[in-house]
Design brief:
Elements (H helix, E strand, L loop, with lengths): L3 E4 L2 E3 L2 E6 L4 E5 L4 H8 L10 E6 L8 E8 L5 E5 L4 E5 L13 E8 L2
Antiparallel strand pairs: 1-5, 2-3, 3-4, 5-9, 6-7, 6-9, 7-8
């Protein structure tokens, strides 16, 4: 598993999704609060709905802009995270395990325009 991961989320039918053929995901949606987190994340990125770059890791990296904090696991195999900066909670589905062996206590992220 990589220490730092990169995906390019985009909007499909009004919902945030991403593809990552490297791990077998196609149109994987962000739901249950994670979709609202995405809206905050891209507020300053022009045309983000057409796709943007999201870099994330379980450890801090140079240039990270945001941190999500693990809250709890649920019975559906997903994990809840809190983004303290915006007072938001969001659910990350079991696809999280395509990138991490176990839910990281923190997820560090950087969002930027594709270019």
């Amino acid at each position: 598993m990589n220490s730092i991961n990169i995906i390019s989320p985009y909007k499909l039918y009004g919902s945030w999704v991403f593809d990552d053929e490297r791990v077998g995901l196609v149109q994987e949606p962000f739901v249950a609060g994670a979709d609202i987190m995405m809206e905050c994340l891209v507020a300053d990125i022009p045309d983000a709905a057409k796709g943007f770059v999201l870099i994330f890791s379980g450890t801090p990296f140079p240039g990270h802009q945001h941190r999500l904090d693990w809250l709890r696991t649920d019975g559906d195999g997903g994990n809840w995270y809190r983004w303290e900066e915006f007072k938001l909670e969001g659910w990350l589905c079991p696809a999280l395990f395509k990138y991490f062996e176990e839910p990281p206590k923190h997820i560090y992220a950087q969002a930027k325009a594709r270019g």
